[in-house]
Amino acid sequence: MSCYPRSSHACTSMGETSSACRWRMNMGATTPVTMGTCGTCWAPSGRCWGARCCSSPQTARGQRSCAAARCRGSTPPSTLGQVNSEYYTGWLDYWGEAHASTSLVHVARGLEDMLQLGASVNMQVVSWWGTAWGALPCHLQHWNGHCCSPSCQAGRAAAACFISRQGWHWAQQGMVSPCWVCGVLTGLSGVSRRYMFHGGTNFAYWSGADFKDQYKPVTTSYDYDAPLSEAGDPTEKLFAIRMVISKFQPLPAGPMPPATPKYAYGRVALQKHADLLDALDVLCPSGPIQSRFPLTFEAIKQAHGFVVYRTQLPRDVLEPTMLGAPPHSICDRGYVMLQKGQRGALAWLWGAGYSTGRLSARFGAVGCGHGAAVLTLWLQEYRGTLERDGQTTVYVMGRAGDTLDVLLENMGRISFGANISDFKGLLGNLSLDSSPLSNWLIYPLDIDAAVQQGWPHAALPKSSRRGRAGPAFYTGTFETPGLTWDTFVKFPGWSKGQLWINGFNLGRYWPRRGPQQTLFVPGSVLHVGRPNNITVLELEGAPSTPLLLFLDQPLFNRTLGHSTVATE
Question: Is the four-CA dihedral 503, 505, 511, 513 of positive or negative sign?
């Protein structure tokens, strides 16, 4: 939204200032423009339109207050007034909640109301990394309603307003309704943003987060139930919008662009390559940072991804003892592992490693090769998760000197509101039975660099290949049948993690939490005539038969704890 500085001189009996009066008269509007009760932005008389507004007219149901907007002062244009607002075609998804959707009837009706008032409408689109926004140009009228208002067609250009990434948060303190938008636009030549017109994908680590009483990370998919889907395909909502536009101007001649082809490449078997802790030399080649107490991601210049925090048990812990974190100090999710050394054990060995359940093992010294041997056996025990606004304690047992590792995951930064200073990592010290732990080794992981350089496919697998619990890497390959079409990958039996194909980070998967069950794979990521390399970082626990399933349709709407019909 554009806002204009307040003048000290009134122009009309309704309280319109002289600058607003001149601005209105230059643009040809007849409705006086006055300050809303929020005192920050210009709005039509009787309407509140600005940051933290609470007193605007309510909708017919009397349930929704006006939307909040963050305003930046600027000089009123001399030949054009603009009112920029966002009207939502759908909504984003949060992990653990149902897939959001908006009725196409509601969206079409709201658009028609705006166009009847002479509003210019831009359709907001998202770039592939989910952080830069723009508007579709007029020549793409096959898809959108941009430049379709009577005022625009008459030659009165509507000023463009590029809205920042925080734009969709402007309605956090209220809901934008068609009644509110149309009321604001009455008497003004304005620009209304349809957000989103085109869905997108938060590839890699780019999915952000919101804060509504608690931390709410956004899913990898930014499909948004938009008129154009995440994969760029037209939906029934798009056709409903086109029908509305056809009432105000002729539609372009010729057929609509079709949906892009999709392909179900089928099942791909994977195998475990290595536990994450066994690959620290590859993932953190510069070595660890030493600190008496934990450091945040920001302190060690780790923008996103993962960091391992390592220390040792200071004493014997012979009974289950609570390992805990202070409130609000896990940002955002920690995976706790304990490496226990058992020396002088007698075992019968066939191979270099053994793993089952929550334990995986590696051997420090073997006396007699295959057969009976005296050895030092290191058991890696996965103890569970610590989570922001969730579980902050686990129980551990071990001996003095056993290694305690916590893999911290940044789940996305809060991009709006009072909690925008969203530091990541261990923000406070962990305590063992209320005694703070100290002397940490901190490993900032650069997994993407390693994967892009060919790891782990170019390396030999590590030991304990049968282990399934705790953070570990899995690999596999598949070939395409002479084509590289878009596809969607499903994770049957997997828990939570990250997926790379041919070195490209496709984002987070979390089928146990939902609602998103598949990740979008653009065809441009795939190869023809040579193997496509799959790398999976599973954080909690892989299925007994690790495989991925490539589909020609997405699955958006299944959550843990309640089942709904999947959107396929």
Answer: positive
Could you say which DSSP state residue 433 is in?
Answer: T
73-112: buried (b, 16+ CB within 10 Å) or exposed (e) per residue? eeebeeebbbbbbbbbbbbbbbbbeebbbbebeebbebbb
Contact 156, 80 (CB under 8 A): yes
Q: How many CB atoms lie within 10 A of CB 236?
A: 9
Q: In the predicted model, is pLDDT for residue 486 greater than 90?
A: yes
**pTM for the whole thing?**
0.73
Please give the span between the terminal C-alpha atoms of the chain, in angstroms, as a whole number. 36
* 463 φ, ψ (degrees, to nearest 5): -75, 180
Contact 210, 219 (CB under 8 A): no
229 alpha carbon, distance to own chain's centre = 16
Task: In whole angstroms, give the CA distance from residue 500 to residue 68.
Answer: 38
Angle between helices 178-185 and 104-116 (to 10 degrees): 10
- The CB density around residue 126, as the number of other CB atoms within 10 Å, is 24
Rounded CA separation 324/549 (Å): 38
Distance CA 190, CA 192 (A): 6
| Both structure tokens of 370 | 């295959």
Task: Work out the pLDDT band at 461, boundaries 50, 70, 90.
Answer: confident
Q: Is 140 exposed, middle or buried (0-12, 13-18, 19+ CB in 10 A)?
A: middle
Distance CA 36, CA 48 (A): 4
Beta bridge partner(s), residue 147:
none
With a cut of 90, say whether residue 474 has pLDDT above it: yes
Residue 340's φ and ψ, nearest 5 degrees, are -105, 130
Strands (E), 190-303: 191-195, 200-201, 209-211, 215-217, 221-222, 266-269, 271-275, 289-291
Tokens 């000197």 map to which residue?
401
Q: What angle do CA 252, 258, 263 make, to 5 degrees?
A: 170
With H, G, I as helix, E, B as strand and everything else as coil, classify residue 280.
helix
Coil, strand or helix at 306: strand
Q: Which residues contact 529 (CB under 8 A, 6 or more apart)?
A: none
- Helix H, strand E, coil C: the string for 509-565 is ECCCCCCCCEEEECHHHCCCCCCEEEEEEECCECCCCCEEEEECCCCCCCECCECCC
Whether the per-residue pLDDT at 29 is higher than 80: the answer is no
What amino acid is encoded at 100 in this protein? Answer: A
Q: What CA–CA distance (Å, rounded) separates 529 from 213?
A: 51
Please name which of 121, 381, 379 lies closest in space to residue 245, comparing C-alpha atoms: 121
> What's the maximum distance between 2 C-alpha atoms anywhere in the chain?
99
Q: What is the CA radius of gyration of the chain?
A: 28
Fill in the amino acid letter for 346.
L
pLDDT exceeds 60 at position 437: yes
Helical (H) or strand (E) element with 447? helix 447-452
Residues 414/215, Cβ–Cβ less than 8 Å: yes
For residue range 421-436, what is the model confidence (pLDDT) as tens digits?
A: 999 999 999 999 999 9
Return the pLDDT at 418: 83
